[in-house]
Specification:
Strand content: 15-25%
Largest sheet: 6 strands, mixed
Order of helices and strands: HEHEEEEEHH
CATH topology: Metal Transport, Frataxin, Chain A
Shape: globular
Radius of gyration: 16 Å
CATH architecture: 2-Layer Sandwich
Number of strands: 6
Number of domains: 1
Structural class: alpha+beta
CATH class: Alpha Beta
Number of helices: 4
Distance between the termini: 38 Å
């Protein structure tokens, strides 16, 4: 029971970490597990994000085979018809590329009635950390993963 509680607490920190990584233009990916075909395919995708212009997540953490935290969201990855497919906790599925595109922050119009010091103090829901980042923190173009 206490281990489950600790896991929940750790996972709750992921959206905030993701927002900080995007703000700093950084990426953190768990190491590739040789022999795990899904993990190898995922790392192939991550290495090619920048050159292909595909969205690059800021945070990828492998939990178990086929189970990951991607940008603060716990998901399951599988391969179907030659592409990686994400299954979310709610059962929704999407190709990895589309999953990431849907979650990329969009530039917004000028903030309404928010001072710069207020925006940094607002607490965001876990699932909305990426969507709520101010435009100056949102990546303008996909960034290539570290090598």
């Amino acid at each position: 029971e206490s281990v489950k509680h600790e896991v929940v607490e750790i996972l709750a920190t992921m959206p905030k970490l993701t927002a900080r990584l995007y703000a700093g233009g950084r990426h953190v990916y768990s190491l590739m597990v040789p022999g795990d075909l899904v993990d190898e395919r995922l790392h192939d995708y991550l290495r090619g994000c920048g050159p292909r212009g595909d969205p690059a997540p800021a945070l990828v953490c492998r939990l178990t085979p086929k189970e990951y935290v991607i940008d603060g969201m716990r998901v399951f990855l599988s391969e179907a018809n030659g592409q990686l497919v994400v299954r979310e906790a709610n059962g929704g599925t999407a190709p990895l590329r589309e999953f990431l595109r849907q979650r990329m922050p969009l530039p917004r119009a000028a903030p309404q009635q928010a001072s710069p010091h207020q925006s940094g103090q607002q607490q965001m829901p876990q699932h909305a950390a990426r969507q709520q980042m101010p435009p100056q923190q949102a990546p303008r173009q996909p960034m290539s993963p570290p090598r």
